[in-house]
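ARCHIVE CARD
CATEGORY: sequence design from structure
SOURCE FIELD: tokenized fold
FIELD CONTENT:
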């Protein structure tokens, strides 16, 4: 059942976009473009008649106007997150449900505004925040550990027992590949460190053996 005036909307931001683009320009390569192209292939399996997506620069937008589709919508966003992580690209975002009207020439969307605020003001780390109104509509999402709670906020859980090793290896590889910038920029270290620590807690939650951390709080001399 579709609701023409309301939709789930996810706003996702590719972290480090400008620096990665500048590196391509400086080195005369298209490595970043190739990584993004590969990551975006996850949308090839998405039903475009139900789930609309578009992108501008470092921003990705996904929407769905079918109210019962909450779980499937979250799973699609989860797949997008993991697909980008496999290419070494970290995603931060927000997801909400509310009024959403869009044509080729106009977008009127309190839902998109809320998703943007969740990304820009709450998320901080490479995670996708989920509006509490989605949880209120479908409380079973938390019971299924598809979302996790932190204080009064919720964020998307991107791992299961079956996918943990894949996600952990992707996060570790991304961190190692970013080590030069991690040494220069503390904010980048913090983002990678948060992702590592979240995955370590997730391993415990899932009853898995905790892997050895790959990023320390400080560098040993």
């Amino acid at each position: 059942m579709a609701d023409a005036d309301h939709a789930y909307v996810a706003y996702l931001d590719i972290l480090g976009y400008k620096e990665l683009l500048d590196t391509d320009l400086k080195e005369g390569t298209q490595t970043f473009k190739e990584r993004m192209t590969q990551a975006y292939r996850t949308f090839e399996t998405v039903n475009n008649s139900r789930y609309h997506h578009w992108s501008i620069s470092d921003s990705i937008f996904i929407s769905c106007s079918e109210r019962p589709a909450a779980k499937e919508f979250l799973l699609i966003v989860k797949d997008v997150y993991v697909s980008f992580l496999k290419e070494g690209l970290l995603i931060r975002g927000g997801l909400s449900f509310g009024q959403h009207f869009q044509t080729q020439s106009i977008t009127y969307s309190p839902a998109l505004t809320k998703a943007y605020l969740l990304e820009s003001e709450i998320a901080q780390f490479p995670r996708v925040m989920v509006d509490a109104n989605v949880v209120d509509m479908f409380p079973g999402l938390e019971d299924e550990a598809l979302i996790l709670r932190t204080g009064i906020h919720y964020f998307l859980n991107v791992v299961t027992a079956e996918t943990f090793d894949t996600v952990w290896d992707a996060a570790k590889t991304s961190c190692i590949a970013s080590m030069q910038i991690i040494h220069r920029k503390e904010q980048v270290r913090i983002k990678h460190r948060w992702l590592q620590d979240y995955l370590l807690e997730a391993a415990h939650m899932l009853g898995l053996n905790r892997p050895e951390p790959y990023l320390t709080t400080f560098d040993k001399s």
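CARD ANNOTATION: The chain has a mean pLDDT of 94. Strands lie at 6-14, 52-56, 59-64, 91-99, 101-102, 107-108, 128-130, 147-150, 153-156.
SHELF: design records, drawer C
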